[in-house]
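Shipment paperwork, digital attachment
Item: protein structure file
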Amino acid sequence: MSENDNENEEPVGDDWAAAMAEQEQVDGATEAEADWGDALKEQAASEEQGGVDSATFPDLQDASDASAKSLSGGDDVNLDIILDVPVTISMEIGRTRINIRNLLQLTQGSVVELDRFAGEPMDVLVNGTLIAHGEVVVVNDKFGIRLTDVISPSERVKKLG
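Attachment content:
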């Protein structure tokens, strides 16, 4: 923009100020003043009716006890709303860390050493969270897993925190 362009333009701030002042006028008072007056009238009316009631909140200790009972199986929990939610179950034989150079050198027949010994149970993960350990079985020419140790819900919750 050149200097001539700036000279031809009207000051934008003055137009906005005028428009805002015009908009704020409501029967001789601004909208904010009118709203404030209404709020004060409502407050006075509630005080005349016996004052303000104090809020009551449930005891947090009772709520935590109820959630602990539901995790431990003490209370019946309605699970109907989540029974059709799909989850991903995966079995993990083991893990290892290698650098990209070694990863790119892998070919058919390469052996990757894992962090587990032969015969150790596999981890059973649901959406990435460990829920059990198990051993591989073959049933009707298909692989499966027999669960040998299921982690309790309370232990799973402890691992999340």
